[in-house]
Design brief:
By secondary structure, the chain is of the alpha/beta class. It is built from six helices and five strands; from the N terminus they run E-H-E-H-E-H-E-H-E-H-H.
Length: about 160
């Protein structure tokens, strides 16, 4: 079975993430969304909350599952018997970081491919960080995130 991993912090998941995920779900028989614990990134939502927000946003994608992971992505991908890692590229500014990460992953596990997927251009400027900033000041984020995420952001306590 062709299986890929779509990793990220997803703090929170956006329509841009979901667009990349839908594209991956067309290419692979199974996609695992790997929600990174990333305590070092100081996420707004816990891993379990982020997992729930992703799960509630993907009910239309039957070949997608969601799990939480910690540690090296390549080790997780191999343990999951995945053949590839999917990474979204919004803009040229994402490329250098993603390219270097892909080269390191290839060095660690040459059998694992990295595939770059571009979202629809309407999502090219959307990021979780920007969504959180808009929500913090009471702005409408409903055009950028699913309804469950909008509700979670309205209930969130911003520091």
């Amino acid at each position: 079975m062709r299986h890929c991993i779509y990793p990220g912090t997803f703090d929170p998941i956006t329509y841009g993430h979901l667009d990349v995920l839908a594209r991956a779900a067309k290419l692979f028989e199974h996609v695992t969304v790997a929600v990174a614990s990333n305590a070092g990134k100081n996420p707004m939502f816990t891993s379990a909350q982020r997992q729930h927000l992703v799960e509630s946003s993907i009910t239309h994608l039957p070949n997608v599952t969601v799990t939480i992971f910690d540690g090296l992505l390549v080790e997780f991908a191999i343990a999951q018997k995945a053949q590839a890692i999917i990474r979204g590229l919004r803009a040229l500014s994402d490329f250098e970081f993603e390219f270097n990460m892909a080269l390191m992953n290839r060095h660690l596990k040459p059998e694992l491919e990295t595939i770059f997927v571009m979202p629809n251009e309407q999502f090219s400027y959307t990021s979780s960080t920007l969504v959180k900033q808009v929500a913090k000041y009471g702005g409408d984020v409903s055009h950028f995130v699913p309804p469950g995420v909008t509700a979670a952001l309205k209930q969130a306590t911003f520091e």
